[in-house]
Structures are given as structure tokens and as C-alpha cells.
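Marked as duplicate of an earlier ticket. Keeping the data here for the record.
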Amino acid sequence: MHRLGPFEELVLLALVRLGETYPVPIRREIAERTGRDVSFGALYTTVDRLERKGYVSSRMGEATRERGGRAKRYFRIDAPGIRALDETRETMARMGGLVHVG
């Protein structure tokens, strides 16, 4: 069983929607869809952890003049990340059947 924290789940879902991308669009996607302001520190910590778990992979883009000669780091979700999201969704659906709200 793959265990995802709530923020890990949001980051993976953003990557599903966006495809391969860098942190600025991931941050924007989460903010627009959840109203949650996300710090870059939290985002980088999370994508690094997801990469160690094998759920995402990254690559360095080309250095650009706009970034002072620095390259962007691009992330994409990998098959284990998709499976972890599916398992999390299935678990939540099963748990939802046990809780009566209201």
C-alpha cells in the first residue's frame, strides 16, 4: 500500500493535470484549485520526497538568460505515482462508506 500525505496527493494531482512542468505552474495549479497558498520551500521538499519514493522523476532544462543562466528543474509523475494516487482514492472511497456526516 502506498501512503500519500494530503499535500503529496495535491502535488501528484497537479502533475497529472499539467504533465511535465516546473514548480511555478504546480504552485499556481494548487493555489487556483484549492485556494491554498503554497511556499516554494514546501513544494520543493515535497517533490524531492516524491522523487525519492519513485513517484515522480525530474530533469534539468536548459539554462536561460531570464533566470540568470540557471536551468529549470522539470517534474513528471511516473507509473508508481499514478498507482499511489489510485490506491489513495480507493482507500478514501472505502472509508467514505463508513462515515455518516450530518
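See parent ticket for discussion. The helical segments are 6-18, 23-34, 40-52, 79-96.
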